[in-house]
């Protein structure tokens, strides 16, 4: 199963096509729209979110609420397109008064994309490199999330830091699986701690006042995974490589950790690796979860816990200096309508990327033709590993 997206930030629509989806999977458009709304939410978002109210339309591959085995096409219309038709028209003469973007923003794809594609109008780059594209990813991953939910797998995320404001957890690898998604969504910054939420909001307010932007960190947590999903024999089978690549595909992600992550490098092996246990009730398990649910590129059956770091948004109210691509003179970088902070939204996008990797791994392991056969294969696998543990 894989997806491809198309569309520009201020174009008519964003489109996603998901291929390789098994037949017989129940799809909830309401749930997809709920995830799209979560991606748009969060304290510190900009004016664009007041214009758009994202809604997914399914154009193919679903009939009477169930997948039919054909590629699924989804579309999200951009309401702001009405204000950009003259500047983003696919055909016609270039308007004489067209304002070209010739002052690339530091930290964005503007300059290097323009050099790559031989253009002096950064709008050709920034429209596609915009984080707006991630709305199509979230819609596409709604299919993956439905498949995982059908097989008993739950995914959520929460914010652990915005700027210098941190949710200081004593033992996150133990605590994270017990956080309630409803409590997280009740927070303006998607953080399960009230005090940390207020500190993060204050940091965003201060950044807005200073014309700055803020990044942060968040965790993605996955519950209900079977052990042995993924692979160890080749690099591309390993879920560590697949999930890492998927998260780094999000434009603003600068770091990814599994379990203890970099902290494992500062500890002795006896303090890092998780002792193996066995019981008639749980089968093989672990006494701790420092690995974050992955060993050798495969799931252990413990909660999957991944932490990611998002850099501050490149667009600043008080812009940094750049070079005008026409005059080659120093000038302030361009300003687009933008957010002060989008860490809570980025965490939702990260959920989606992780969901797609895991759904694909399940299909590789248990078949991909139809949900009846997949459910039967999962049931047989559960029984086999339970019998092995006796």
UniProtKB/TrEMBL annotation:
This enzyme's EC code(s): 4.2.3.5
Catalysed reaction equations from the record: 5-O-(1-carboxyvinyl)-3-phosphoshikimate = chorismate + phosphate
Superkingdom as given in the UniProt entry: Bacteria
Keywords annotated in UniProt: Amino-acid biosynthesis, Aromatic amino acid biosynthesis, FAD, Flavoprotein, FMN, Lyase, NADP
Chain intervals for the UniProt region annotation (Disordered): 275-295
Biased composition (Polar residues): 276-291
Uppermost EC category: lyase
Cofactor binding description: Reduced FMN (FMNH(2)).
Names of the cofactor(s): FMNH2
Residues that hold NADP(+) according to the record: 39, 45
Binding site for FMN: 128-130, 296, 311-315, 337
Cross-referenced InterPro entries: Chorismate_synth, Chorismate_synth_AroC_sf, Chorismate_synthase_CS
UniProt keyword Secreted present: no
Pathway: Metabolic intermediate biosynthesis; chorismate biosynthesis; chorismate from D-erythrose 4-phosphate and phosphoenolpyruvate: step 7/7
PROSITE patterns for this protein: CHORISMATE_SYNTHASE_1
Similarity section: Belongs to the chorismate synthase family.
Protein purpose: This reaction introduces a second double bond into the aromatic ring system.
PANTHER family: CHORISMATE SYNTHASE
Subunit architecture: Homotetramer.
Protein name, per record: Chorismate synthase
